[in-house]
Write a structure and sequence with these properties.
about 280 residues; 6-stranded mixed beta sheet
Length: about 280
């Protein structure tokens, strides 16, 4: 069972006040992402709204933490709504991969009781993790070797509604999805944290507000942090350490996949740092 701090944060995330406010206020920054589900399901009420996705897998102990922009919505997915009890919700997210971790990269369970095809994102995360661990694909277990979370935790498709929420978080950083992520981050014991796409913007902004600045430990092109935080994810290949974790910023693998993804976007030096950090644990095992 997760610790008390994590449970309290979990409850705040899945019952986020912004859901009710965004449901009824057209100008609310969360209205667009919340409206997405309502547009997919005629007559959807707030009780059957698919709740925010706080994480998937062992968020505390997984050595890799992948951070996406927001989770993808699928109407047919067997997924919690507000009617589920807290214990069942927590078990769903913490053990999401456990029953089928080694079957087809981790398919999603549908409301018909069948396992559908896995999202491309999940498939590619497993490939990235295997590359970082220097293991065969079948030797990497989703949920155990890596966990997933999101900068924005409400679901949509094609990241609809994410940009407005992150822009709002930059003006008002308290009590937003990116703020939830920043509270979740220190509870994770992950050694390596990989942020994709819009999640990069959210983390850059959070770091810019922090008193402790990151230590850049690899950079292909010399650049100070103040200039670096203005760059896009393709602008410079770099890796940095912050608050006991190593971070890498990458483009979203669903739209930018290529052979040797880590090498392409981090370079040999950046990839080696991530691999070496994870090899420390493997050597001890």
């Amino acid at each position: 069972m997760p610790d008390e701090k994590l449970i309290k944060l979990f409850k705040r995330i899945v019952t986020c006040d912004h859901i009710k406010n965004g449901w009824i206020q057209p100008k609310h920054p969360c209205n667009k992402i919340i409206s997405f589900q309502r547009e997919q399901v005629a007559g959807l009420d707030i009780e059957n709204f698919q709740i925010p996705e706080p994480w998937s897998g062992d968020i505390i102990n997984a050595p890799i933490l992948f951070v996406g922009p927001n989770p993808s919505y699928a109407q047919e997915e067997y997924y919690p709504n507000s009617s589920w009890c807290d214990r069942d919700k927590i078990n769903f997210f913490s053990n999401r991969f456990s029953k089928y971790a080694n079957e087809n990269m981790g398919p999603k369970l549908t409301t018909d009781g069948e396992y559908g095809r896995p999202p491309h994102y999940w498939v590619r995360l497993r490939h990235i993790a295997a590359d970082m661990f220097k293991r065969k694909l079948t030797e990497v277990t989703p949920g155990k070797d890596y966990a997933l979370t999101e900068a924005v935790m409400c679901k949509s498709q094609r990241h609809i509604g994410v940009e407005s929420i992150i822009r709002n978080a930059m003006r008002n950083p308290q009590n937003t999805c990116p703020a939830y992520f920043m509270e979740l981050l220190p509870l994770s014991k992950a050694k390596v944290c990989v942020c994709f796409s819009n999640a990069v913007d959210a983390l850059k902004h959070a770091i810019s507000l922090a008193h402790d600045k990151p230590e850049i430990i690899f950079m292909e092109e010399p650049m100070d942090w103040e200039r670096l935080k203005e760059c896009g994810v393709r602008s410079s290949k770099f890796v940095f350490r912050w608050r006991s974790k190593i971070f890498a910023f990458l483009p979203h693998p669903s739209r930018n996949w290529c052979q040797d993804f880590l090498m392409a976007y981090l370079g040999k030096g950046g990839k080696k740092i991530l691999t070496n950090e994870l090899q420390k644990d493997d050597i001890l095992l």
